[in-house]
Amino acid sequence: MAVGGRGPAGRKAPGTDSGVAPSTAPAAATGTGPGRALAPATPGSLTAPIVVPNTLWQADNPLAYDGGQAAEITHLREFGLTEDGRTDTARWGALQVIPANADYILDLIRANSLWPLLSGLACCAIEMMSAATSKNDMDRWGMFPFRASPRQADVLIVAGTLTTKMAGPLIRLWEQMPEPKWCVALGDCTVSGGRYKRSYSAVQGIDRVMPVDVYIPGCPPRPEGLIYGMMQLGQLVKDRRGHWAERKIGPTAPDDI
Amino acid sequence: MPARPTAPRPQNSRVKARAAQPQPQQQEPSADDPRVMLDRQLGTLYEPIPPYPTRTEREGEFYSLGDGEMFLNLGPHHPATHGVLRLVLKLSGEQVVDVDPVLGYLHRGVEKICENSDYYHVIDQVDPLEYVSSLFQEWPAVLAFEKLMDVQVPRRAEYIRVLSGELLRVASHTLFMGFQALDLGGLTPILYGFIERDEIVEMLAALTGARMLFNYFRIGGVNGDLNHEFMSRLGDWMSRAAKQSQAQSALLNENEIFVRRMRDVGVLDRATALRYGVSGPNLRAAGVPFDVRRAHPYSIYPELDFNVPTRDEGDALARYLLRVDEIRESIKIIDQCLNNMPDGPITAKLPRLLRPRPGRAWAAVEGPRGMQGVYAMSDGTDQPYRFRIHDPSFVNIQTVPAILPGGLLADTMAIVASLDPIMGGIDK
Amino acid sequence: MDRTLKTRLEARLGEHLRVPVYQRQDQTEIRIDPGSVPEVLRIVHDALDLRFEILADLAGVDTGDRMQIVYHLWSPMTTDWLRIIVDGISRDDPRTPSATFLWTGAEWLEREAYDMFGIIFDGNRDLRRIFMPPDYTSFPLRKDFLLPDDAARSTGAGVRHVEQAHTPAIVADNPAAGIRRTPAS
């Protein structure tokens, strides 16, 4: 399957006036008029992924970040199959970070002070807030300040269903967070689409659009589950011991699921 | 700003020297420049302001700026906890001139999924709409299906439904109080709200098995009977409930900042509320005593003795105080339910494969946010042909362009919070 | 079931009603043509013995052959809900008058019906998409918009590989044959 450039079927180019003026609506907007039959998918082809073009930001110096990523590879499933996708060296290769004792200590510090970004989208947000408030207190592990600004946050806890309309802003949030950053998928909808598995507008798991470190299943997961997930994240941070750059990203489920 | 125009400052030698230097060429700003980023075509990622050619009359009216006006995007991600609502505000200084709410950031296609689910699964699918008050999403669905199938619900099941529903109403309103204060900047009441909510929700977890998306009501009854853990937790809570709600509301009601920020802010008057189809506490705070439990009674509400609090002012403070009153009424209802709980079965006997006759049914209940309705069409198969959900938050949010303008930017969050919207229900 | 409501509606609406007033349980149902919508809504809202002032819901329905708009109204003068089914909106050019002249709140409900079905409401000042992104081209709740579940039951092939167990011979000729049609609605 060709990677990149191919959006979901039916998307028009941004420049055209694809909003519908009332007088032209039925002809223009209905893709299923009498003359236009739906083309059923050929057996064996997969559904088109939600491809988010990587045109948001380019570094000033074209040689920075080892030349950078190819703009077309944004769907992490394809990226995860490539050599570079298994590790994160593509971005740090030019810097060749050698973990030192300082990084070890820094990771211990970071693990105990992970500041989440308020990214509550739906029901799981209520459980996230419940985990942050008095009865199950996440402040015990230093995670109380839910930063409103992505520039100040460490962890993006995506709590709630991600829809195709919200995917853009969420990816922008993720990209605005400074490194090192981690991502936690809270709830079934973010892990794999969950109860919206066949929905036309829910993103089937946020690992299609961003790298996830910890998956917390549940619908919604109990606040204790979220706390367990955050402790696993802390453990993960400490385990890597400074090798943040070489963490494995991409979905870990087998391909034919 | 100075009261009278001042003369231009005399240029000293340093300024003259700098002006005499050759000016650098106006370079093309580099691609890193964040100002440049916004001008680029961003495609379908999100809609910039001001947008694409405007498509409708109202949009054209909104997106044309007058003198001294500016757009401010209260984007889908913001710290006010109502979820992913995007408000494009047109401001003139600090005052809001117009607002264009943009929805759809949580649209999950529930109605379409329900057309492909059998009747049991629909009840589960419809829970995450207003996730804070899940039972009130299931209730009109089961009512509509019961009307389609002519099912009689046993009395004990009705009492349990009302009991759990009113408990959830108390939890939802307490959470509303917390969110209202949080949006105004007070960080303590939300903790109180969540303590209260956690207690009630643990109770309901003992009864239904889940803390939030309960999936508890069934067509013809409920899923499980009352058990010891539920009753003991409920007893504990009831012994403290009245005093606790009193204490919590005292934290806010007598706080001058809170009251001054909410009084006469976001006034929704009676005619506007009726024209918009608003329902629930927002409508009752505007002076219309319309409560579906009294207007079109369902379940056992005709036998219960409770008041429907109504206020006249229509401002945010009235909506807040009304919900506090409703907590008290709900505690009264819970008390009556417990005292009069009959014995008997908790579900009606139904076949495994539910295939109602072709037909149409509408049912509405009074949720914590307003009238939650379901219009179900059956075509004789085991899946509904059309499952339409009418959500109260959807129509409540629609009043935002009518009540925000004229207020300050700081009042925006107070007003939106006082409408108590839940984005899951708005966006379905 | 309010029998007097039936007589009152027949008296007031007369020739606008396409079929006799149908009553079941606590709902009273009338069917009208799209052209009668403004007048019927005005009568039903203003008439002193009807006074259906509260718009409870405005829904779109796609019945396979045609589209419908379904209004639900409440009045303090009766114990029944009133359901007005605007029947006969064609699927190829779905247009119907807007109810925003009576209820401003119908604006967003009509936007939702437009977004999900493509029904154009004449008179709505703000008819743009409300849930889907503005450049979305399909109308999701139409019966020919197939989710992968639907596709498994239709004569067309499914979208995901799990639904492609058996692809019948008739595939691309008539994808509309997979649309479920209500027997009588």
Name its key features.
heterotrimer; A: 257 residues; mainly alpha; Rossmann fold; 4-stranded parallel beta sheet; 4 strands; disordered N terminus; disordered C terminus; C: 185 residues; alpha/beta; Beta Polymerase, domain 2; 2 domains; 5-stranded mixed beta sheet; two-stranded parallel ribbon; 4 helices; 7 strands; 21% helix; 23% strand; globular
Write a structural description.
- The complex is a heterotrimer of chains A (257), B (428) and C (185).
- Chain A is built from 9 helices and 4 strands, in the order αααααβαβαβαβα.
- By secondary structure, chain A is mostly helical.
- Chain A has a domain at 101-242: Rossmann fold, CATH 3.40.50.
- Chain A has a 4-stranded parallel beta sheet with strand order 1-2-3-4.
- Chain A is globular and about 45 Å long.
- Residues 1-41, 44-51, 71-75, 88-97 and 252-257 of chain A have low confidence and may be disordered.
- Chain B is an alpha+beta fold and 428 residues long.
- Chain B has a single domain (110-427), classed as Cytochrome-c3 Hydrogenase, chain B (Orthogonal Bundle), CATH 1.10.645.10.
- Chain B is built from 18 helices and 8 strands.
- Chain B has helices spanning 13-20, 34-39, 57-62, 110-115, 119-125, 135-149, 155-184, 189-208, 228-253, 256-262, 270-276, 281-284, 292-295, 316-339, 392-398, 400-403, 409-418, 423-427, and strands spanning 69-74, 86-92, 95-102, 217-218, 221-222, 359-367, 370-378, 384-390.
- In chain B, helix 7 (155-184) runs antiparallel to helix 8.
- Chain B is globular and about 95 Å long.
- Chain B starts with 12 loop residues before the first helix and ends with a helix.
- Residues 33-48 of chain B have low confidence and may be disordered.
- With 185 residues, chain C is an alpha/beta fold.
- Chain C folds into 2 domains: 3-122, NADH:ubiquinone oxidoreductase Nqo5 subunit (Beta Polymerase, domain 2, 2-Layer Sandwich), CATH 3.30.460; 148-178, no CATH class.
- In chain C, the strands form 2 sheets. Chain C has a 5-stranded mixed beta sheet. Chain C has a two-stranded parallel sheet with strand order 6-7.
- Chain C is globular and about 50 Å long.
- Mean pLDDT of chain C is 81; it is low at 154-173.
- The chains are: A mainly alpha (257), B alpha+beta (428), C alpha/beta (185).
- At the A-B interface, helix 6 and helix 7 of A face helix 8 and helix 18 of B.
